[in-house]
Structures are given as C-alpha cells and as structure tokens.
Write a structure and sequence with these properties.
The chain has two domains: about 240 residues, TIM Barrel; about 70 residues. It is of the alpha/beta class and about 350 residues long. It is about 40% helix and about 15% strand.
C-alpha cells in the first residue's frame, strides 16, 4: 500500500478512480526523486524503478541497493529488469523474493540504441521466438508476479502484434504499452490506432503509457479508451508534478504550488549534495530535473537557459534564488508536445 499525503481542495466533479503509475525516467526518477515526490505531491499510486542489470559491479551496483525495502518504505515500488537472459531473471527474482517484493517488471520497451543493439528492451521485440523460449523457462520458476512493458515494435508496428499471442499464453500480471516504435524514441506522435488494435488482441490487463502531458490529453485518452483503468505517466509528471493530483480532482492555488516546487527542489538538492562527489555532479543532476520542470513556469524557458549557462553551482543557486524572489507565474495550461523534450 502506498503512503501518501492528503491535501488540496477536492473537486468532486473531476474525481478519478484511475490508478496512476510513474514511469521510470533513467537518470532522473531515482529512489530519492520518488520518495521526495511522494512526500510533497499526491496522485501517484505506484512507482516503477529504473531498470537494473543483474550482476552489475562497481558504482552501478548501487541501482540494486536502491531497491532495498528500507529505502522505499513510503511507496509501492515495482523493480524493473532489462535482460534477455534466463539466469539473470531467476537471480533477480530470488533477490526480490529475499527482499520481500512480490512483483517486478520486464522492460521490453527501452528505446536506447545501446540497449536495442544487444537485443534488450525494444530490441527483443523482433524476436518473438526468443521471448517465448524465455517465458517458457522463466514463468514456472519465478516467485514474484511479472508485468511487461512494451512498445509497438522496434522498427515495425506489427512486431508487438506478433508477440501478443505469445504473451497471452502466460500469467503476466499486466501489460504496459507505449504506442511508439523503439526507433522513434520519444519523437513524433503516439500511434493510438495501433494501440487500439493491441488492446483488442491482448488478454491481460493493459496500462496505457505515452504523451499524457496535461489534464486535457488525459481526458481525451480516457474518453477514447474507457476500458483502461491504469495509466502510466512519465515526462508529463516531471514537467508538471501537480498533474496526477489534477487527474484525481485535486488542485492547489498558485502560491502553494510555487512553495511546493521550491521545497521539492531544495530536498532534491540536499540529497544530491549528500550523495554525490562535488558540486559539478550536483549541478548536472539538478539541470536534468529542470530540463522537464521548467515547463511549469510561464517564463521557464528563459530560466532554463540561464541555469544551463551557470558553470558553477553557486552561480546556479544565485540565479534560481533570484527567479524565485520574483514570484514567477505558473502556466495555467501546459501545452506540451513530445518534441519539447528532445
């Protein structure tokens, strides 16, 4: 069960019973981001962790430590694996079982070229026979429930349609579909017609994921796909952390929103200052957050340009403090498109 803060003015006519998941955004939604977000904002029911490669050594092994239950007591966290190896799956499942988890997600949607070239993520979708062989070995042996996150394919939209009958054979917990090709990454439009065809074919509970940037876009998708009760949000939440609460009929006035953003940034900065070695690394991490978050401000683009030009952390903090001191207006409606993040 997720533990969340109850706040905000409830708008009864906008109440939503939808379950909302926060997608993993590599390099941004780490354990600190998820916990701090959950402490300050509301609306997200479940968080998917950035993917883990089993057997990682050195510093990257910290991703596995981030799954320790004591680090995620406040949230429902779903660990995620990026693999095409049966032995890695079984090792990961055992690790999660020992840690007390009951579920994990298999990432068959990652579009990064360095991943897809190794037949991982969306790079495995053109090979349905390999997916089937893996599931034949994995499913009888794992203890945790497994969900699968997919794209329409790597290069062709019919690849998932070929894989779906295979997935239908197995007791998969849920299917998260992002209706783009892997080679698109996040460019162009989501293919809702292809998603609709997948929805007719899939026998599992389906979660929609992709380009939910504001309340208007969510309502349009909800109207088109009334059978969908679970939704995964990603960049839309990073750009507007109030979006999940708005979907569920909650909102705050602008002064409260500004205060919450300031508190969120301060908490993120504090955790990076504690964990990272040197102000340059802290600055890089915070700029990765502002790459999305600047959209919430009416003059956010100018702010982001100024922050990127700051070569020293002290200069960055001074410019941000000055921006806050002007009581910057928030954008009432975020007319964001996917290309804004590319």
């Amino acid at each position: 069960m997720c533990i969340g803060n109850e706040f905000g003015k409830r708008l009864d006519y906008m109440k939503s019973t939808s379950q909302l998941y926060l997608a993993p955004i590599q390099g941004v939604t780490n354990e600190g981001y998820q916990t701090i977000y959950h402490d300050l904002f509301s609306g997200i029911d479940c968080y998917v962790a950035p993917f883990v490669k089993v057997g990682m050594q050195g510093k990257r092994k910290n991703r596995k430590k981030a799954l320790l239950p004591e680090r995620n007591e406040k949230i429902r966290l779903i660990p995620q694996i990026l693999s095409n190896n049966v032995a890695e799956f079984l090792q990961f499942d055992q690790y999660l079982q020992d840690a007390g988890y009951q579920e994990f997600n298999w990432n068959l949607g990652c579009p990064m070229r360095m991943v897809t070239l190794k037949k991982r993520g969306a790079g495995l979708l053109p090979y349905p026979e390999q997916i089937e062989a893996m599931l034949d070995h994995i499913m009888p042996k794992i203890h945790c429930q497994m969900s699968v996150k997919v794209r329409l394919g790597l290069k062709h939209a019919d690849e998932l349609l070929t894989v779906l009958p295979i997935l239908n054979r197995f007791p998969i917990q849920m299917l998260i579909i992002h209706p783009r090709l892997g080679q698109q990454a996040y460019a162009g439009q989501v293919d809702l017609q292809a998603f609709e065809e997948c929805l007719r074919t899939a026998k599992h509970s389906v979660v929609y994921n992709g380009d939910i940037f504001n309340l208007e876009s969510f309502r349009a998708l909800q109207k088109r796909f009334p059978q969908i009760k679970h939704w995964m949000l990603g960049r839309g939440v990073l750009a507007n952390p109030f979006l999940p609460a708005q979907i569920k009929g909650e909102d705050k006035d602008k002064s409260e929103k500004l205060e919450m953003i300031m508190r969120f940034h301060a908490a993120m900065a504090a955790q990076y200052e504690e964990k990272l070695s040197g102000p340059a690394h802290v600055l890089d991490k915070l700029l990765a957050i502002w790459f999305y978050l600047h959209h919430v401000f009416a003059d956010g683009a100018a702010l982001y340009r100024q922050l990127k030009k700051a070569k020293k952390y002290e200069v960055y903090k001074a410019r941000l403090d000055h921006f806050y001191s002007t009581t910057p207006p928030l954008r009432e409606h975020l007319n964001i498109v996917s290309e804004d993040f590319i």
